[in-house]
């Protein structure tokens, strides 16, 4: 296990610190493009990585993975997924990264796009609460464009994010459980910032009515690091949060939510993203 995380760290240092590539994707389409969102009233950098066999299998339709915070995570995940898929350790997927002009912009604007509702004053966020607009951008603007330009399996879309990106992923799941169409059938959240606004999302999940059926099954994978317990008196113990998540999510739509959670021992908040993304995607299609 130690060797595994050492390797992941090495890959992160080599690939994760490089600026986003602007080389063309295998089918000649640009790997990075700017896309204006009417919902958010701002432009995003959209990163595309196609499976190695995309051109060879012209009749194949591929699952799509939408990755938040792409300025930080896209390069390493693109390399890892292609290499892992080549030896059968990961599914062949189209990876779509949602990012910003650069890392400093991402560090600021993710507060705007990944949170809901507006942050309470103690967080001192200059902008926040725009997750509803961000979801509209993904579902109504970005997804139709990706489906138009690439051979996508529209029944297999997965959203994954870390920290505030994990919060947005959980928020999107909440909207889905509330009966709204989000376009996603899979959700992978690494160390989601559920403490935001005094556990707003947990309270919302708890209050959702139980449904007897759902149009399609959804798979949910949520993780935390074993060292994430906070000494803050307003924070809930990690085991309590995990128990509540399991109860609130699994009971909302009987038989239609496949939920899995893990605590990665000895990992902290900033260590969980890569193992969560890789293990989550492996689990997501393990029986499909």
Tell me the layout of helices and strands.
Layout: H1 2-16, E1 32-37, E2 42-49, E3 62-68, H2 70-86, E4 94-99, H3 103-113, H4 131-149, E5 152-162, H5 164-177, E6 186-190, H6 196-207, E7 218-225, H7 238-250, E8 257-264, H8 273-284
Parallel strand pairs: 3-4, 3-5, 5-6, 6-7, 7-8
Antiparallel strand pairs: 1-2, 2-4
Helix pairs in contact: 1-2, 5-6
Describe what this molecule looks like in 3D:
The model is unreliable at 1-30 (pLDDT under 50). This protein is of the alpha/beta class and 288 residues long. Helices cover 39% and strands 20% of the residues. It is built from eight helices and eight strands. A hairpin with a 4-residue loop joins strand 1 and strand 2. It is globular and about 55 Å long.
Query: What is the end-to-end distance?
Result: 27 Å
Estimate the mean pLDDT confidence. Answer: 86
pLDDT < 50 runs, ≥5 residues: 1-30
Helix content: 25-40%
Topology-level CATH name: Rossmann fold
Structural class category: alpha/beta
Portion in beta strands: 15-25%
Rg of Cα set: 18 Å
Strand order of the largest sheet: 1-2-4-3-5-6-7-8
What is the helix/strand order?
HEEEHEHHEHEHEHEH
Can you tell me the CATH class? Alpha Beta
User: What is the strand tally?
Assistant: 8
